Amino acid sequence: MKLTVKTAVFLALGGILFSCGQQSDIEKLKEKRINLKKQVATLDEEIRSLDTTKTTFLPLVRPSEVKVGDFKHQVIVQGEVKTDKAVTLNAEANGRIESINVKEGQKVKKGHVLARIDTEILSSNVQEVKTQLEFAEYNYKKQKELFDRGVGTEFELKQASNQLNTLKSKLNTLETQKSKSVVKAPFDGVIDEVFSNEGEMAGMQSPLMRIVNNEEVRIAANISEHYYTKIKEGTPAKAFIPTLNDTLDLTISSTGNFIHPTNRTFRVQANVKDNELLLPNMLAELHVTDLMIDSAVIVPAEAILKSQENEDYVFVLTEKDKAFTVEKVIVKIISKHKGQAAIEPISRKLRAGEKVVTEGGRGITDEDIVRTF
Predict the structure, then answer these.
(1) What is the pLDDT of residues 57-68, one digit of tens each?
(2) Is the four-CA dihedral 153, 154, 156, 157 of positive or negative sign?
């Protein structure tokens, strides 16, 4: 039927054109030709509306809506939990461990006596030096009297003075070591682990126990120097702790002032308070916001295509007669994050709710007619 109707119309048109040479009224013929073309267009439209097989072969595309709203980009890096209050306490005096006064897991206050070192040997040494010091003081006084009377020599006086000062210094050192035989908590915390036992010999720097305070910890990580100007103190961040399956809302508390020459990164830290579940050296995934845009035009990143002219563009769909017409809109990409892209439309504005092609866009062109799925 389609072929028959079109053939009849074109035969009529050809007959009139043939008779053109027979008529003198050219304007009249032109008017008839225009009318016939309109009839052809009308018939074509009717044929398309009746021909249901044509829509079956329209390209299929998947649409997604344009959104206008807040857009943020985050840098995601691996970090870990740090604290300045996780200390291994070492013996500062030689001797036998006389007593350990705490247990693992016990909470202690600053200044709490944790252990004592038996200082019997030190005490004996102190007494010996005190005896020597008494004689040195006596000797110095005698040498001073002799020197003042002109009997003694200056050398003998200085020798006595040096001996006296040496013994005073030695006594002070021994008494300081003796005072360090009492091990005290340097801050409030929890005894995490005890390494030594009562009765064992402790040497200088022998580890006794570890004390930890987790009330004030921080998440520390290294970030590429590319983001140095975008991340400052106060920048919003989140930390995901895999061990706890928990996410914390944080802000950056400090940024480093040094670029590591090997991996070109700088240090960032975010303080965490009142979270005793966090333990030193726990792994953390730090999400730092380096870009925030209000009222951004947002489309799925997969909707953006690139032309041969190296231009980024999207296909916008407009519904028409149960199908959609395709319009190519040039855009500029501002940023991408988690499958979404903030863009700046170039060739025309995009409104919230308009549909863009996210799948099937590579098989269509501007002004095509398509169907969606």
Answers:
(1) 789 999 999 999
(2) positive
